[in-house]
Design a protein that fits this description.
The chain is an alpha/beta fold and 170 residues long. The chain has helices at 4-8, 68-82, 101-117, 129-139, 144-166, and strands at 34-39, 44-51, 56-64, 86-91, 121-125. It has one domain (32-166): Nucleotidyltransferase, domain 5 (2-Layer Sandwich), CATH 3.30.420. The protein is 42% helix and 20% strand.
Length: 170
C-alpha cells in the first residue's frame, strides 16, 4: 500500500508539505542619492543635479565641446566629484511619439555613459524641454542673448524634474 505522504502530498502530521521556494523577480528599487541628468546635444551637453530624497532638480553646468573624448573627460570629473547613484538622459522624440535620427544618438550616449561609468542610466522623454527652459529663463528675467550658455543645463533641470515627478514616492 502506498505511503499517505506519497499519495496525497500531506505529511502524517496533517500539514501539507512546505512549498518549494520560488524566487520572485526583484522589485526595482529607485536608488537614493545624487542624480545627474543630461540634455544631450551635438555642440553642448547640459547637466543638472538633484537628490532623490528632495526630488528637486537644479542646473549644474554645460559642457560646450564637440569632441567625444573631451565631453567624457568632463563628465568623468563631474561624476567623480558628485558620486551620483543614477544618471538620467533626455530622449528626444517627435510630438507624435515617433523617433528621429537624434533619438538614436541620445540612446547611444546613454549606453556610453552606462558602460564608461558603470552607473544605471534612465531615459526620460525630453519633448519641449528646451522651450520650457527658455520660458523659465525669460520668466527669471534672463535676456534672450544671455540664455544660450545656460539654456542646456536648465533643459537638463526640466528633464530631471520630470524624472523625479514620474518616480515620486507615494
Amino acid at each position: 500500500m502506498p505511503d499517505v505522504e506519497e499519495e496525497t502530498g500531506i505529511r502524517k502530521g496533517g500539514r501539507p508539505p512546505s512549498p518549494s521556494p520560488v524566487s520572485a523577480p526583484p522589485v526595482p528599487q529607485r536608488p537614493d542619492g545624487t542624480v545627474l541628468a543630461f540634455d544631450f546635444g551635438e555642440k553642448r551637453i547640459g547637466i543638472a543635479i538633484g537628490e532623490t530624497q528632495l526630488a528637486l532638480a537644479h542646473p549644474l553646468t554645460t559642457i560646450a565641446a564637440e569632441q567625444t573624448d573631451v565631453r567624457f573627460e568632463a563628465i568623468g570629473r563631474i561624476i567623480a566629484e558628485w558620486r551620483p547613484c543614477l544618471l538620467v538622459v533626455g530622449l528626444p522624440v517627435h510630438m507624435d511619439d515617433t523617433e528621429h535620427a537624434f533619438t538614436a544618438r541620445a540612446r547611444r550616449f546613454a549606453r556610453q555613459l552606462e558602460g564608461r561609468f558603470n552607473l544605471p542610466v534612465e531615459l526620460v522623454d525630453e519633448r519641449l524641454s528646451s522651450r520650457e527652459a527658455e520660458s523659465m529663463l525669460r520668466a527669471a528675467g534672463v535676456a534672450a542673448k544671455r540664455q544660450k550658455p545656460v539654456r542646456d543645463q536648465v533643459a537638463a533641470q526640466t528633464i530631471l524634474q520630470d524624472y523625479f515627478e514620474q518616480h515620486a514616492r507615494h
